[in-house]
Design goal:
Layout lengths: L1 H8 L6 E3 L2 E3 L4 E5 L5 E7 L2 E9 L5 E7 L2 E9 L5 E7 L2 E9 L5 E7 L2 E9 L5 E7 L2 E9 L5 E7 L2 E9 L5 E7 L2 E9 L5 E7 L2 E9 L5 E7 L2 E2 L2
Antiparallel strand pairs: 1-2, 3-4, 4-5, 5-6, 6-7, 7-8, 8-9, 9-10, 10-11, 11-12, 12-13, 13-14, 14-15, 15-16, 16-17, 17-18, 18-19, 19-20, 20-21
């Protein structure tokens, strides 16, 4: 963030003085900014404009298009920590379609807004888990599908990286839950269905049958009443 702000502050007005008169020109230049960063590329009206390369003092680089002194258009930015962004920029920040390779090995491909994943995209985690859906401010937010490498699957609503709202969880053993979700777990009203034919409809708390509900066995036997922490009370 500091490097980007410095770029915005030091728009580097490059003026060539000839015979006592200043003139504006457009050609490739090499220049050093006050913070030690080096720019090699095109300028226009004294500002970075067109194709160029900016190298920061810590070794981070940006190669791509500039407009009026800012990264703007298609570009590639590589950070010292290994993070790499490839895609569209607007007024100095990733904005539009692009892909971000995190230092951890996670990869995001999709839409960006003001430097962060925002809109529709796909996030693949280094362990093989994959999320496809909506993002806001860099977080899973809105409707999406999260598929785990072990076979578990969630489809539904997210709020700030947490499963919250309404959704469906399919467990690795084939059982599934459909209903209200809070803090990543069944909370509220919903239905759980077992692969063996049993099913429960009613209230849940922290992933357990809890509250009023009805459990129906595959042979037709029914338990109806109050459940607590997964067990039938009365």
């Amino acid at each position: 963030m500091l490097k980007d702000n410095l770029l915005k502050v030091f728009l580097i007005l490059i003026i060539v003085v000839s015979n006592g008169n200043s003139k504006v020109y457009s050609e490739e230049v090499t220049t050093t900014l006050p913070d030690g960063s080096i720019y090699v590329g095109k300028i226009k009206n004294g500002l970075f404009h067109g194709y160029g390369k900016l190298t920061w003092l810590d070794g981070s680089t940006y190669i791509g298009e500039f407009s009026k002194g800012l990264m703007d258009g298609k570009g590639i930015k590589t950070e010292r920590n290994g993070a790499k962004y490839i895609g569209m920029y607007r007024k100095g920040s990733p904005d539009g379609k692009g892909e971000l390779h995190y230092p951890s090995g996670d990869e995001y491909i999709g839409e960006f807004k003001q430097g962060l994943p925002y809109g529709k995209g796909e996030l693949t985690y280094v362990n093989g888990d994959k999320y496809t859906g909506e993002f806001m401010d860099g977080m899973l937010h809105g409707n999406g599908v999260l598929v785990y490498v072990d076979g578990m699957r969630y489809e539904g609503e997210f709020k700030r990286d947490i499963k919250s709202g309404r959704g469906k969880i399919v467990y690795i053993n084939g059982n599934y839950y459909k209903g209200e979700i809070e803090n990543d777990l069944p909370n509220g009203k919903g239905k759980w269905v077992s692969m063996n034919g049993d099913f429960y409809t009613g209230e849940f708390k922290n992933g357990e049958f809890h509250g009023k509900g009805r459990y129906t066995y595959k042979d037709g036997k029914v338990l109806e009443g109050y459940f607590e922490l997964g067990g039938f009370k009365k």
